[in-house]
């Protein structure tokens, strides 16, 4: 009984294989041709959103909002003029340093975005160059 089932199953599969292979190849070619369109539409939107979220997270991690909010609040509760001036300049210095760190992070994200945009044309050029050389 097992041999009969296997023979029938193999007979059925041999008639369906060329249709499945054609469908598989046509879908693969379709995805390969659609990939550059996806790269610069949906893929770019995903990368832009994640880059914006990365910058926002870094802003929160650096605590710039808290430092800017408390810029004019005296440190350690001192209310004399000397304490207020010292705490203002100390916090101003910290804000400048953290802003430079955030600017450095933004530059890194922009370099990543430029690399993402240029990666596909360079890879296609490299593939074509080595294919036809």
Task: Describe this structure as you would to a colleague.
The structure is a single chain. The two termini are 58 Å apart. It contains 4 helices and no strands. The chain has 133 residues and is mostly helical. The longest helix has 52 residues. The N terminus is likely disordered.
Question: What would the keywords be for this entry?
Answer:
4 helices, 0% strand, mainly alpha, disordered N terminus, 133 residues
SSE layout and pairings?
Layout: H1 2-40, H2 42-62, H3 64-69, H4 81-132
Helix pairs in contact: 1-2, 2-4
Beta-strand content = under 5%
Instruction: Give the helices and strands as they follow along the chain.
Output: HHHH
What is the number of E strands?
0
Choose one word for the global shape. elongated
Helix content: over 70%
SSE class = mainly alpha
Largest sheet descriptor: none
Low-pLDDT windows of residues: 1-8
* Total count of helical runs of at least 4 residues: 4
Condensed summary:
This protein is an all-alpha fold and 133 residues long.
């Amino acid at each position: 009984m097992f041999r009969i089932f296997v023979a029938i199953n193999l007979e059925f599969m041999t008639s369906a294989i060329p249709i499945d292979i054609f469908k598989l190849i046509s879908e693969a070619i379709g995805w390969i041709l659609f990939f550059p369109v996806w790269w610069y539409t949906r893929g770019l939107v995903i990368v832009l959103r994640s880059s914006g979220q990365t910058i926002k997270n870094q802003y929160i991690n650096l605590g710039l909002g808290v430092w800017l909010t408390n810029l004019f609040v005296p440190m350690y509760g001192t209310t004399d003029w000397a304490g207020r001036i010292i705490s203002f300049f100390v916090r101003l210095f910290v804000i400048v340093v953290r802003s430079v760190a955030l600017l450095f992070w933004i530059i890194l994200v922009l370099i990543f975005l430029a690399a993402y945009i240029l990666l596909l044309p360079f890879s296609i050029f490299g593939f074509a160059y080595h294919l036809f050389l």
